[in-house]
Write a structure and sequence with these properties.
about 270 residues, alpha/beta, Rossmann fold, two-stranded antiparallel sheet, 14 helices
């Protein structure tokens, strides 16, 4: 594993880790809200590394990346972060694999810079809208929405309770103690003001997605406790040529709960583009 510091949008320092085959086709993993690159452990430590160059970024405000108070609202900042990782590490036409909020970041990037520098996208339990366009059509489960005030709270007890329930919603299967404390550490490393800034954005990326032309793989757990099936249905309406992969008995994180299948399908997708 090799660590990099990449200078992203507005000069913000991003922590990025790389492993796998340096000469292989690249995959850039983009985690979700209150996560870090560590959530991709079952990909970075897998057979994917034999053939592919694997890169996981800590998005701004998360993990070991910088956490300023006011640097999350503009799509261009997020787009510049992804572009900086691609250009600094000289990734040749990577596939962007985005989990949950990672779909918003993919949309930010494509909306600003198009698809010339990427080979395709993998939407993993991913969302493409925020604010009223997201909530009104019923794209998120009520159990998740009820936790949002706790995500923003500066009260340790309230924040901890909300984040631990978020972890429970992420996995349909019960996590082992080791898995539980890994996710607890990851989620608690993100300040409340960062979560509030991310969820306060108001975005409708339907036009961006409908205009995309590179191959798309949509990977969703059938028992996702956070994102409703309506979200994946919207993605498929916008991109009817996309490949949809549904995971029965799996929640919001198919890459964690069903890593062998997820890695196999991502391998096949990456080989094909």
């Amino acid at each position: 594993m090799r660590a990099h510091t990449v200078i992203g949008g507005d000069g913000l320092e991003l922590h990025v880790e790389e492993t796998g085959n340096p000469a292989g086709k690249p995959i850039l993993f983009i985690h979700g809200l209150s996560g870090s690159g560590l959530v991709w452990k079952r990909q970075l430590d897998s057979v994917l590394g034999r053939d592919f160059r694997l890169v996981a970024m800590d998005i701004r405000g998360h993990g070991m990346s910088a956490k300023p108070r006011d640097a999350y609202g503009e799509p261009r900042l997020w787009a510049d972060d992804v572009r900086a990782v691609i250009e600094t590490l000289e990734l040749d036409a990577p596939v962007l694999s985005g989990w949950s909020y990672g779909g918003i970041i993919i949309s930010d990037y494509v909306g600003c810079y198009g698809e010339d520098a990427i080979a395709g996208t993998n939407w993993v339990g991913a969302i493409s809208r925020l604010g009223e366009p997201l909530v009104a059509p019923g794209f998120l489960h009520d159990a998740f929405l009820a936790l949002v005030p706790g995500f923003f709270s500066e009260n340790v007890a309230e924040s901890t309770a909300a984040l631990q329930e978020l972890i429970r919603l992420c996995a349909h299967q019960e996590l082992s103690p080791d898995e539980w404390f890994l996710f607890v550490g990851v989620t608690h490393s993100v300040p409340p003001y960062v979560r509030e800034a991310l969820l306060s954005r108001n975005l409708d990326n339907d036009a961006v997605i409908a205009g995309m032309r590179t191959p798309m793989l949509v990977s969703c757990g059938e028992d996702d406790g956070i994102v409703k099936p309506a979200m994946r249905d919207r993605l498929m309406e916008l991109r009817p040529d996309a490949k949809l992969s549904l995971y029965p008995g799996v929640g919001h994180a198919p890459f964690w709960e069903s890593p062998e299948r997820f890695n196999r399908e991502l391998m096949e997708f990456r080989e094909s583009v």
